Amino acid sequence: MASRSSTGSPRPRPRRAAGSVAALALASSLLAACGGDGGKPELVWYINPDSGGQAAIAKDCSTDEYTITTQVLPQDAGQQRIQLARRLAAKDPSIDLMSIDPPFTAEFADAGFLAEVPQDAKAKLEEQGTFKGAMDAATWKDKLVVFPFWSNTQVLWYRKSFVDKAGIDMSQPVTWDQIIDAADENDAKIGVQANKYEGYVVWINALVEGAGGHILEDAGEGVDAKITLGDEAGQDAAAIIEKLATSEAAPADLSVSNEGTAGSTFGSDQGSFLVNWTYIWHNYDDTAPDVAKDIGYARYPQTVEGEESRPPYGGIGIGVSEFSDEKDLALEAAQCLVSPESQGVNAEITGNMPASTKGYEYPKLEDQYPADLLELFQASVDAAAPRTVTPYWSDVSGAIQNIWHPPRAVDKDTPERSTVFIEDVLKGGDLL
């Protein structure tokens, strides 16, 4: 797609520090709350762009007591964050509900923008089998602060005709080294996300986690968190990016590639492998049916041979504004919006998979996806590695992008250089 959030939300088709956020208020004016006429309350839900799933369940979850309406945020995840942060910092009461990208959950919660999820609602989420990764991404300082709505993950998509030609057994786990070598030796290209944006950091994080490491540790320490990107796992991640970027398997547009351009590479005559989100299964149904019939799928590639991969985690959580004039009603409405039925309807329409096992039981999903692919999605979410939950993620991510981009410039020194730069940015010694 042309532009996409780090959640993996597809374009419409038939997803900083607390002090920095507060500072945004200085550049914003307090927007007047929507005036009521004494009639039925209107709950306004700010949603990320999709193909109609959120609007459909907003209608379904409206009641005699309140109506839920939607307002669409910008396509770009960073712009979504900025728009919401400015208004929340100004305590704008006209935002009742909001779809939040996981990297920004801790930031908003730490700034006091989000109402805590009630215990009875948390119990319902657990009863419907909400994935651990989704609950972890929705938690800050041991409090559940958003309602997990959908949980996206990446798998390794492949062209069956290519793997037959290359002689690769896809029934067994494969490594990044293996697929890069196969594509390099057979005049093929691999689709990844490596533009200077959040999607590139998603890839880097998955590589680091797959090697047994983390970008940072002790996130609760704030600016004093331990940056561990320069450790051995970071070196392993850099080696893979360097290998792909300097090989014949790298597409010409690697340094500006996103989910959409990577999908185009995969659908071309040189398509071989692609790491991308769940919507890919139906991405070519109308535009390239021959490609659609040629798609296979497997677990995300291993960073280190023999070590289980840690696929990327994306998704959306629904937050309730602490400043909403109808906070209690919004908390009630959010429970309907994330019910298994609602998650299933949204998945059916958008291709963004449920955040719970009960959501996967929605009958129409079985008609849209092979059973083993639905199982792979769930296993991948269970094994996924969310980006570190920290209110400083925007600074961390921006610092990584500055040092690790373009991919062709990545080498053995990149992890350590980025470690130093992240520390300097967090402690005010350098600017993004």
From TrEMBL:
Spans traversing the lipid bilayer: none
Signal peptide coordinates: 1-32
InterPro entries per record: SBP
UniProt keyword terms in alphabetical order: Signal, Transport
SUPFAM superfamilies in the record: Periplasmic binding protein-like II (SSF53850)
Pfam families named among the record's database cross-references: SBP_bac_1
Keyword Membrane: no
UniProt family annotation: Belongs to the bacterial solute-binding protein 1 family.
Name assigned to this protein: Extracellular solute-binding protein
Lineage: Bacteria, Bacillati, Actinomycetota, Actinomycetes, Propionibacteriales
